[in-house]
Amino acid sequence: MVCKEENGMKKRIWALALTAVFLLTACSGGESTTGDFSVTAGEDAQTAAASGLTLSMRVPETLNPLRNRDESVDRILKLMFLPFIGQGENGKPEGGVAENWTLSADGMSLAVNLKQNIKWTDGTSLTADDVVFSYDTIVGSEEDAVYKNVTNYVASCTKTGTYSVTVNFREAFSNNISALYFPIIPAAHYQGQTEMDSAANMNPVGNAPYRMESYTMASSMVLVPNESYSGTVPNISTITVKITGSADTDDYSFSQGILDTMVTDSTSAGRYLAADDKMKGTAFDAGVYDFIGFNFGRDLFQDKNLRQAVAYVVPKDYIYESVYLKYAEMSNTPVSPASWLYEENVAPYNYDASMASTLLKNAGWADSNNDGVLEKEKENGTKEELRITMLVNKENTARNQIASRMEEELEAIGFEVTIDAQPYDVYSEKFATGDFDLVVGGWKMSEVLNLAPFFVTDGDYNYIGYSNEEVDQLLQTANSAIGEGQTLLAYSNLQKKLAEELPYVSIAYRQDVLLTSSYVGGEIHPTRINVFDGIEYWTLQQKG
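== Solute-binding protein family 5 domain-containing protein ==
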């Protein structure tokens, strides 16, 4: 998977496929108190961990969600801070601290009315000042802060009333609103206190279902229900957050029953669930899109018959069951099936080796010398054999499995295939420079969906060299659509065309799994953007 910051056509709004580098630093100091919580150093927090829910995160350098740079810390802070505009399980904007919103006719601004019943844990009301302050804090945050990419979409945020703001976008873009999923923090508490070493940054004042009761430096944090929260009162009365050093530590701690939850991939999930039938695993979209790509720099794959022949021998049932262990949503387009924008009614290319052979025959390919490899006579009288290389990165076990099976399937219909398994750095270079025939690849797709970088002519991530004027126009229409109806229609038309054209053979969107111990019950609905979404509806049996 190649991940880097995107530039190019409409640079600010292109998908952000980033590998974030998290800098973890331990905090030190004495003791401070603010409101109903305390921060201490050098001793364990006095908690009811034995009877409460136990989660984990890395050592936080800050508990200000807008300055934070660590994903594990962000997950925990979501329990204490509501987003500006939330997202449903299908990624559609909804809820948060926003009551409703209206997009301008030109798509350049959004008028937002805020809910008027939201209180901070110090008893004060959330207002427009807090939203404006939150955006300004993001602007001043480090480049690798979790929510820094908001500034790629939003130019400014202005107060228009006590409970109303206007968000001005940098460009009219169909999915701008999806970029507004960032936490709101109280201006009065953090004003002049947003530096990493400020007292306020380690003393969170939030507005979500939980509040911090205590934090023991580099050891643990205790959360309890937020009495000021206007929504559903959480069922679980105590959450202890253990400070752990790595994902490996989380794995060990979960296996020993120290932690009640762990987010993991399909392989680890299968191992745990096979060992303990009382444990639960809830899958959710990981945002990783796997595909087989064609090199359009080769005349061979300019022929749609060849691309379709490849598509018809992708063994999706085998891949779903044996490679992904059923933790994936098989997809026929580059849009996640979990998304509200996914179009189901496209050409599915169900497995059909006979159809693949027919397409090759119709394109003039035949095995005239009975050596098992098809050939075709060229205009100059010479014969071209159907020999290809398939690029894959050797560290990715799943994609190597796919490549090996595809080698078998393609050779069965007359291809000669050489698998080019390379270390990630070499693989990335070869992919980016077009040194392949077929590639088994994947992209970490942005939550703010934009397919242009991958398929538009000369797009930054268009490593396959694909160019189609109609697709270029459909991409532009999808990106410039204004309003829900226009956006749905534009993405429907785009996906139908991509499924017909096959610049990629879409395989699947992989899923991660939220594992929960046998003690945890209730309604568990993790999402890609918030694995603890709806945690107030979880239940916990008595431990011990």
